[in-house]
Structure formats: structure tokens, C-alpha cells
């Protein structure tokens, strides 16, 4: 086993005791003083929650649920770190991607197992022969385009909905296509519908906009220093070019046997190239990009979730929300940049948040192949104020220190 491999492994051994220690620390997002019984949940929901193996709420669940379910329901703009259980803090929603909507649908189904309610999935690839059937379900979860189609086709009556949730709310109100569609859906709802926004990140500018569209919201906000998680250790590796990045990835592949990994590329093309190279090298990898059909996307993510492939090569389409417990390593094959070529701190945080779910240990490794990408990473490091250490794969002394 290479030294690099040893170091990564030593950082990945998580125990339930680790998570219990975090739960006792008031600064941890997993900390709570209340039990689920104290949160105003219906008996049947409580049964569903316990059935999912949740014993105690996280901080966001403990804070948000009583406010959402109270006698006087409030609107809310909520921020909580990735992997801290925001999904269990709401019940129906619009999601930015097909995979995330499907995942939220599954969580809702599990949680509502003992309730007499039905859930409709409004995503492409899900409709099969039922395209024009009227919807009788009480909860609708989907992507904005399909929901708008359903409204246009009068497949359900939006004025009957009591709660409207935007998951990954910052992208839902900030990227142009999503914003227009989300606002259009919102216009069809009754004025009294509760309006709930959830995300791990809100740029200041986006938070201002959120406040301007949500009437009298309760705001749950993190400080910048709280946004990144201490259970995710961040590293970078200097490489000469994309070939050397590929070799570094092949080296790390062995570590993944104690978990799974997600590799993020900047473009569909580079993701395709990398997946092809890995396959040629004999590694079993999954590839998921926006170029796949909805059916293919669901197939690929389901296979990956069930552990059939250890490594998923993807783009930002999987950067947010996807919850696969066994992901122990996230690799930024390319440092994330926004449409203007500026380091994208929010996307960075979401990407690395695919590991370290609910207090588990995780590792994020950034591949840096030029001074420019190094400087971009440095500005992300500065933004969150959390160290990103260099791994020099052939320096044993330095590696020993990193393993602490
Ligand atoms: N109270 C709880 N006790 C134990 N596990 C929990 C609890 N709440 C949520 N989880 C688990 O934690 C994981 C992360 O939850 P979830 O996907 O809701 O996070 P999130 O905050 O929405 O993350 P992201 O910002 O990445 O979308 C899930 O696997 C979920 O089953």
C-alpha cells in the first residue's frame, strides 16, 4: 500500500463513539437538547422517524421543526451544514435536480410509512404512462420544469397546497432558469401557504434576495466559520497536467475500498474523458452527467448508491444534496469555478459535503494543476478560514504529520 493510501485510510476510520462525542458538543451541528418526542410530531411520524434509525434530532431539526409545526406556522429561511438532516426538517418540495428530488421522495416515503398519505414524484423519467393523470397525492416532490408542466396541464390544484419548500434554495432563487420557474410555481399558490427555504449555503447577496421574497421569515443562519465541517479533512495535491491528475486518482483508488468516492470535473467532456481512462485502466467507475437521459441518470445513481461501483465521476449535477453514506472521499479533479471563471466557494462546500455525512469522517482532495488553480483554491481556503493541507505523496515525514 502506498504511503498516500496509508494516510488517507488512517483518517477515515469513524466510530459511533466519534459521532456521540460530536452530539455532546454545543458547537456541533449534531448537538441537541431535545428528543424527537418534544418536537410536536404526530405519533405516526415519530414511528417513521424511529423506523429510519434516527434516535435524536440534529440542531437544525430541533430548531426548525417546532417552528414549522407550531400553532402559528412561520415562513423560514434556514441554513445548516451539509449532511445534517435538513431533509427531515421539511415534507414537500422543489429540488434542482432529478436525483435529489428522487432521493427526497424516498426519505419522505420512509418517514410517512405510518401515515395515510401518498407522495407524487414530478420528475422527468418518472411519469411513464401516467403523464396526464390527475394527481391525488398530498405531497408533490419534483423539479421545477415538470411541476410547471403539471400546473399547466391542471394535473393538480396548486392553490390547495399548504407548504412550499425550496431545497437547495440558494440555487433555486439565484440561477436564472430555476429562479423564473420557482417564482412561477410560487405565484400559483395561495397567499397563506408556508414558504420554506433550505440550504447549506447562502451568499450574502442571495440571502438578501431571499429575505425580499419570503414574507416575515424566521431566519436560521450560520456564521461563515461554522459553514465548513471539521469532520471533513481537506487536502490538495500538486499535479503537472491532467495525465498526472489521472495517475494521482489511480493511486487513491485503493483507499476507496473502505468506502466510496465521488470525483467532480468541471465539464461533461472532461468527466467523460476521465471515466474512459479509468475504465481502460481496469477500474469500475460510474459516470453521471447532464448528457445522460433521465432513465440513465436514475439507473446510474441507484447502482452507485447500492455500492455496485465504488467511484462516481460526475459534474456539478451531483454537487448538491446527494446523500450516500459510504462516500468517504471527494475529489475535486478540477477546482470549482462559476460561469465567470471565479472560484465558486458555495459549490466547493456542497461538493465536499457529499462526504462526512451526519458526523462521519470524510476526506476532500483537490487536484491543482497550475498556479491559477492553486490561487483559486487558496481563495476558497481563505473564504472559509479552514486549512487545506498539501499532500506530497512521496514525503514520508510530512505524511506522518498529516495522519495525526
Ligand atoms: N436525527 C438524525 N439521526 C441520525 N441520522 C440522521 C438524522 N437526521 C438525518 N440523518 C441522516 O443524515 C444524513 C444526511 O441528511 P440529509 O441528506 O437530510 O442532509 P442535508 O442537511 O439535507 O444535506 P445537504 O446540505 O448535503 O443536502 C442522511 O443519511 C440521514 O438519513
Keywords:
single chain, 404 residues, alpha/beta, Rossmann fold, 2 domains, 7-stranded parallel beta sheet, 16 helices, 13 strands, globular, binds adenosine-5'-triphosphate, nucleus, helicase
The averaged pLDDT comes out at 89
Ions, cofactors and other ligands present here are: adenosine-5'-triphosphate
| Tally of discrete structural domains | 2
Could you name the CATH homologous superfamily of the largest domain? Answer: P-loop containing nucleotide triphosphate hydrolases
Spatial sequence of strands, sheet with the most strands:
9-10-8-11-12-7-13
Q: What name does the CATH topology of the largest domain carry? A: Rossmann fold
Ends: how far apart? 19 Å
CATH class of the largest domain: Alpha Beta
What is the beta-strand fraction?
15-25%
What is the strand tally? Answer: 13
Q: What is the CATH architecture descriptor of the largest domain?
A: 3-Layer(aba) Sandwich
Q: Helical content, roughly?
A: 25-40%
Helices, by number, come to: 16
Rounded radius of gyration (Å): 21 Å
Overall geometry:
globular
* Class by SSE composition: alpha/beta
Helix/strand order: HHHHEHEEHEHHEHEHEHEHEHEEHEHEH
Poorly predicted runs are none
Please summarize the sheet with the most strands. 7 strands, parallel
Concise structural overview:
Its EC number is 3.6.4.13. This protein is α/β, with parallel strands linked by helices and 404 residues long. 39% of the residues lie in helices and 16% in strands.
Characterization of the model:
- There is one protein chain.
- With 404 residues, the protein is an alpha/beta fold.
- It contains 16 helices and 13 strands.
- It has helices at 3-10, 16-24, 43-51, 59-69, 98-111, 144-152, 169-174, 176-187, 204-213, 224-227, 242-252, 268-280, 294-305, 345-352, 371-384, 396-402, and strands at 75-79, 119-122, 139-142, 163-167, 194-199, 217-220, 232-238, 260-264, 285-288, 311-314, 327-332, 362-368, 389-390.
- The strands form three sheets. Strands 9-10-8-11-12-7-13 form a seven-stranded parallel β-sheet, sandwiched between helices.
- The longest helix is centred in the first third of the chain and has 14 residues, at 98-111.
- The mean pLDDT is 89.
- Bound molecules: adenosine-5'-triphosphate.
- The site of adenosine-5'-triphosphate (ATP) has 19 residues, from loops.
Amino acid at each position: 500500500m502506498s504511503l498516500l493510501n496509508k494516510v488517507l485510510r488512517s483518517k477515515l476510520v469513524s466510530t459511533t463513539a466519534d459521532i456521540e462525542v460530536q452530539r455532546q458538543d454545543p458547537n456541533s451541528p449534531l448537538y441537541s437538547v431535545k428528543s424527537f418526542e418534544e418536537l410536536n410530531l404526530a405519533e405516526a411520524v415519530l414511528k417513521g422517524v424511529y423506523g429510519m434509525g434516527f434516535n435524536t434530532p440534529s440542531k437544525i431539526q430541533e430548531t426548525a421543526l417546532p417552528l414549522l409545526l407550531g400553532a402559528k406556522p412561520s415562513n423560514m429561511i434556514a441554513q445548516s451544514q451539509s449532511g445534517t438532516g435538513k431533509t427531515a426538517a421539511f415534507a414537500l418540495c422543489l429540488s434542482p435536480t432529478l436525483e435529489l428530488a428522487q432521493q427526497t421522495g424516498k426519505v419522505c416515503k420512509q418517514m410517512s410509512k405510518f401515515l395515510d398519505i401518498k407522495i407524487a414524484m414530478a420528475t422527468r423519467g418518472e411519469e411513464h404512462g401516467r403523464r396526464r393523470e390527475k394527481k391525488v397525492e398530498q405531497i408533490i416532490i419534483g423539479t421545477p420544469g415538470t411541476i410547471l408542466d403539471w400546473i399547466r396541464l391542471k394535473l393538480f390544484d396548486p392553490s390547495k397546497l399548504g407548504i412550499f419548500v425550496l431545497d437547495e434554495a440558494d440555487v433555486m432563487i439565484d440561477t436564472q432558469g430555476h429562479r423564473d420557474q420557482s417564482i412561477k410555481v410560487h405565484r400559483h399558490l395561495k397567499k397563506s401557504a408556508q414558504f420554506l427555504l433550505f440550504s447549506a449555503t447562502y451568499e450574502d447577496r442571495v440571502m438578501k434576495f431571499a429575505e425580499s421574497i419570503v414574507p416575515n421569515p424566521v431566519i436560521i443562519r450560520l456564521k461563515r466559520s461554522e459553514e465548513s465541517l471539521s469532520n471533513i479533512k481537506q487536502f490538495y495535491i500538486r499535479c503537472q497536467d491532467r495525465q498526472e491528475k489521472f495517475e494521482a486518482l489511480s493511486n487513491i483508488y485503493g483507499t476507496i475500498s473502505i468506502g466510496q468516492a465521488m470525483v467532480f470535473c468541471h465539464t461533461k467532456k472532461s468527466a467523460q474523458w476521465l471515466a474512459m481512462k479509468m475504465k481502460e485502466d481496469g477500474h469500475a467507475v460510474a459516470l453521471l452527467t447532464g448528457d445522460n437521459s433521465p432513465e440513465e441518470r436514475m439507473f446510474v445513481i441507484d447502482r452507485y448508491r447500492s455500492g455496485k461501483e465504488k467511484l462516481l465521476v460526475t459534474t456539478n449535477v451531483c454537487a448538491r444534496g446527494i446523500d450516500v453514506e459510504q462516500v468517504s472521499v471527494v475529489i475535486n479533479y478540477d477546482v470549482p469555478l462559476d460561469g465567470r471563471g471565479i472560484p465558486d466557494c458555495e459549490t466547493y462546500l456542497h461538493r465536499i459535503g457529499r462526504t462526512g455525512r451526519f458526523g462521519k469522517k470524510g476526506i476532500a482532495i483537490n487536484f491543482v494543476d497550475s498556479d491559477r488553480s492553486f490561487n483559486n483554491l487558496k481563495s476558497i481556503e481563505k473564504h472559509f478560514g479552514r486549512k487545506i493541507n498539501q499532500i506530497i505523496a512521496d514525503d514520508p515525514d510530512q505524511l506522518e504529520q498529516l495522519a495525526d
